[in-house]
Amino acid sequence: MTAQKSNMEHQRHELLSEIERYTTHVLSDHSIDPDVAVQAGAAVADYLAEQWGGQLINIPKDYHWKLAKRDVEIYEAFTGNNYAELARTYNMTQRGIYKVISRARKRDIARRQPRLI
Q1: CATH label, 64-112, candidates 1.10.860, 2.40.50, 3.30.200, 1.10.10
Q2: Is the per-residue pLDDT at 42 higher than 80?
Q3: How far apart are CA 108 and CA 13, in angstroms?
């Protein structure tokens, strides 16, 4: 067995073990019976291995998808005059909230209005 294959097997095992552990942790935090949480964690890891096994997947380290999710939450909570409240809730400045609302509004409009050719 080559060193590269051994390293890849180790990384694969580490990833699936971490997914199993984290799934179990999240379910336990949500008051799911510990035995059920462990079984669910194993089932999620097994599912990923079966469905995605053999695929080469690159998972980026950035967190743009988290920011986009947060932006949507802020935009949906925006009432037109609650900048200060949102700034406190999301631990941001009011200026930051203005920018988020502006970006989210532009994305929303672009999504609903197809571009003219």
Answers
A1: 1.10.10
A2: yes
A3: 41
